[in-house]
Design goal:
globular, single chain, mainly alpha
Length: 67
């Protein structure tokens, strides 16, 4: 609830793509989000298997995260 609509959208898209069980494993990214450290959250997203599998999509989502 504390995230703005754009960042909420990123989390929803990740949840839809990965499912909650896999997304819940992004501990460092989720922790950074809870601290409003969006640059670290984006970096953690880019440092994931998801980003290796779909680099362009991950880059777009990470970019939205830091705006």
């Amino acid at each position: 609830d504390e995230l703005d609509p754009v960042r909420q959208s990123v989390v929803v898209q990740l949840c839809f793509q990965l499912g909650w069980p896999r997304l819940s494993g992004f501990n460092r990214m989720l922790t950074a989000l809870s601290k409003q450290d969006y640059e670290t959250a984006a970096a953690e997203l880019l440092d994931s298997r998801f980003a290796q599998q779909v680099p362009a999509r991950a880059a777009r989502l990470a970019e939205k995260m830091v705006r």
